[in-house]
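Weekly modeling sync, notes
Attendees: S.R. (lead), two postdocs, one rotation student

Agenda item 3: backlog of single-chain predictions. S.R. asked that every request posted to the team notebook include the full sequence so nobody has to chase files. The rotation student volunteered to paste the first one in as an example of the format we agreed on. Action items at the bottom.

Example entry:
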Amino acid sequence: MNAFLTIIFCFFVITSSAFAADYCAFGIGNNWVYSTAINGRTVEFTQEVTTLEKQGKKQVYTMESRMNRTLINTFKWQLENSSLILLKKMNLRGETAFSPPRKEMICNAKVGDRWTWKSHNHTDYLNYEAIKEEKVSVPSGKFNAIVIKTSGFMDGTEIKESFTWYADKVGSVKEVVKAGSVDMIRKLTSYKVN
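Predicted structure, as returned to the notebook:
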């Protein structure tokens, strides 16, 4: 009987990890196009993973973010220990290296998972929680998603509420943010993931 239970347990562990969700769809050429309403004004945001470079043992991805086809931000990301880590953000205002690097997402998150990021100077902090799974409909389709709630304080602005829907093997499909005087709703209109 003990041998049978051991086999069943091992099978469960192997199949659970083999079928675990992957909400961090990162690969060269992957891109996502979003219709984004910011305080009632709609713009198109595009994000694309453009390069992958080795930095020692680490692989660092570059992602470009464009608004109405104009480059506005370049991000440096790393996938580490099943988490998506933001290392750096660059734009016309300069470069921000996140210290410590900011864990943005647990790639195989489950409802109830929580994590926190605090800057070294303790002026910025973000609290994340996987609050539920639900079906979400956006212009690019219908998805089963996990919803991540984020709150905190970033760049002098309180993040009152932020909810992001992540779909398996796709990434972020919807986001609703209330931060400072900004109300934003972002929905995925098309995507390409390898």
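Discussion: group reviewed the output briefly. The chain is about 10% helix and 65% strand.
Action items: rotation student to repeat for the remaining queue; S.R. to check formatting next week.
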